[in-house]
Amino acid sequence: MQIIDKIQFFSVIILSFFLIQCKGFKSNQDNLVTPSEVTSPTTNPITPEKIALGKMLFFDPRLSGSNWISCATCHNPSLGWSDGLPKGLGHGMQKLGRNSPTIINAGFGALQFWDGRAPSLEEQAKGPIQSPGEMNQNPEELVKELKKIPAYVDLFDKTFPKEGLTFDTIANAIASFERTVVSKNSPFDKWRSGDATAVNDSAKRGFDLFNSKAKCILCHQGFNFSDNGFHNIGLKEEEGVVDVGRFEHLPIKILKGAFKTPTLRDITLSGPYMHNGMYNSLEEVVEHYDRGGDNKENLSPNISPLGLSEEEKKDLVAFMKTLTGDPITILVPRLPQ
């Protein structure tokens, strides 16, 4: 048996096991408290100086080739750190192929982007900057441009004294700032901490359904409500669109049409939903899962019709709404001139 075939075989076995265990499955729901901070890699230890510099860069449109697009264009704090569009808009206002994912709690994820092509936030930060369809900036040109701004040169020399201003340190600073974007103190968190009145009875019933009949827990696990995995959930694409998702970067059959499980933290703020932005409401999302998806080709074994009642669907949505935390307050920085 070839290596790829073995991987596919054991992937199916593992998924099947989860399905068999689904009835009454509760998982380890004790691990639902969000850590106070995101752990940074040893190659890029977080510092206050990096966070401050990364914040400036995140909001600076001069990181793009047109000097019009910043990271915050597609990851707007006022729009759930996304852009409120089904699919993002990039260089020259061209429509992009996928929905702009929120960066809320992105630091807790392993692989980044809908298809997991970036292994870290540092690599994720580099991706859109140099993508022709997104920010359309040449990394070498970007470094030259920023080095013409004395305040940036000084900030990079102080923040990265051994490296200074490079494309790597630009990405390291942005990633450090992004690791501070964490959802905290939601009604759900308060309820789990002992406040029985923090959520209503409908949400409590929804949480029970989430962990049992609705089978959400198969993919949305732990404090971040994501398994960091990739699943084909049977989404329709626009006519003429073929998006193979994770399969493009890891050609295993079960991953064809599979996309990353998003966090459910602050989920009410980051619609439209799904990698193609096809659903505008959580109610539509629940309906999708209740009917077992639409496109049955290469469908994940986790997906099957649920048979939820109208009341159960409302309870599920009520629960998901309790996962929105306190507002993440951001003071937009004054950029170096």
From TrEMBL:
MF terms in GO: peroxidase activity
Keyword terms of this UniProt record: Heme, Iron, Metal-binding, Oxidoreductase, Periplasm, Peroxidase, Signal
Gene3D superfamilies, A to Z: Cytochrome c-like domain (1.10.760.10)
Residue ranges of every copy of the Cytochrome c domain listed in the record: 49-157, 201-324
Top-level division of the source organism's lineage: Bacteria
InterPro entries to which the protein is assigned, alphabetical: Cyt_c-like_dom (IPR009056), Cyt_c-like_dom_sf (IPR036909), Cytochrome_c_Peroxidase/MauG (IPR051395), Di-haem_cyt_c_peroxidsae (IPR004852), MauG/Cytc_peroxidase (IPR026259)
Compartment(s) of residence: Periplasm
Pfam families: CCP_MauG (PF03150), Cytochrom_C (PF00034)
Database matches in PANTHER family: BLL6722 PROTEIN (PTHR30600:SF10), CYTOCHROME C PEROXIDASE-RELATED (PTHR30600)
Name assigned to this protein: Cytochrome-c peroxidase
Taxonomic source organism: Leptospira kobayashii
This protein's encoding gene: mauG_2
